[in-house]
Amino acid sequence: MRVQEKGQVTLPVEVRQKLGLKKGDLVAVIETEEGVLISPQEIVATKALDRIGEVLKEKGISLEELIESGREERVSIIEKQYGIRSDKGK
Hints:
The chain has about 90 residues and is mostly helical. The chain has two domains: about 10-60, Pemi-like Protein 1, Chain: D (Ribbon), CATH 2.10.260; about 60-90. About 50% of the residues lie in helices and about 10% in strands. The protein contains three helices and two strands, in the order αββαα. It has helices spanning about 15-20, 40-60, 65-80; strands spanning about 25-30, 35-40. A two-stranded antiparallel sheet has the order 1-2. The radius of gyration is 21 Å and the shape is elongated. The N and C termini lie far apart (about 55 Å).
């Protein structure tokens, strides 16, 4: 592959077909010790979410607890940033 003037590269058709990439799809470019890894964006996001789920499970944190802590954090941020007090979620 050749890098074009604006940094563009053309992935071979076989690679695009194997990865199911179509015109306009997003890819993630990840630097590794060996070079660069190009992967469909959705696969990278799914792996990250799966890993977050694994860590939460290892720590014994349920989905309900995670959602509730998010609510509490939002209330705290709104109170600090905007001075708006709310008893909801507490």
